[in-house]
Amino acid sequence: MNISRAMGLQGSEIISLVGGGGKTTLMFRLAGELALQKKVVITTTTKIYRPLPDKYPLLLLGEDEQKEKEEKELAGYLQSGLIPVVGSELLKDNKVDGITGGQLNMLTKYADYVLVEADGSKGRSLKGHLDFEPVIPGVTTVLVVVIGADVLGKPLDDEYVHRSEIVSKRTGRKMGSLIDPEIIADLITHPEELLRDCPSGAKVVPFINKLDCLKNPAEGRRLGGLLLSKKIRKVLLGSAKGVKPVLDVLEY
Fold this sequence. Notes:
Strand content: 15-25%
CATH topology of the largest domain: Rossmann fold
Low-confidence stretches: none
Oligomer: single chain
Order of helices and strands: HEHEEEHEEEHEEEEHHEHEE
Radius of gyration: 18 Å
Distance between the termini: 19 Å
Number of helices: 7
Helix content: 25-40%
Structural class: alpha/beta
Strand order of the largest sheet: 4-5-2-8-1-10-12-13-14
């Protein structure tokens, strides 16, 4: 099953991705699926690496006097079937800096789907969040919480977890403890964690990524079961890099 069908997306959505363990890979895979039939824009409220420009042209939004030109350029990319990546500035490390809420609203006038990378995890599969993270747009309709299944069985430390001390504090587990499904579920659902700023009307869909890395995939499914609730009514399991990206769907 492809990702967009498994998520049950509507005809147009603003999809924000948070968490760790493959957000960017999942975002571009989903964008590719959607762009076969719809107009798709990729952007960020934090920072993302600039992708190859042949398929993903970069559009930087600047001052108000350039607005008409920028909108025309955006419309041209979308009419050509391309997937523009929209930011505010290209930084020295080849990262694209994020946009504002007003700029995001402009994108929705031209694109059917806007995909927003709204979090950073320093390449780790699990992350504890500071008070100002993640940066979820208020207009988000689908919030995708990405979890790297490869962190299961690993020690709770900075090698495998971004801000591991926050995870330790919020889950009540000691540093160095082996990460199990309960730790991850307790973190994701903690009232001070990444769901605290989720827009009330947004659908929350965790994606347990890298399921193929597990010796025992049942551990990933157990995690999915722990996450299901009145707020999280569907959990996807799979591999964003796989031939079949979605291997299982759990529903509340």
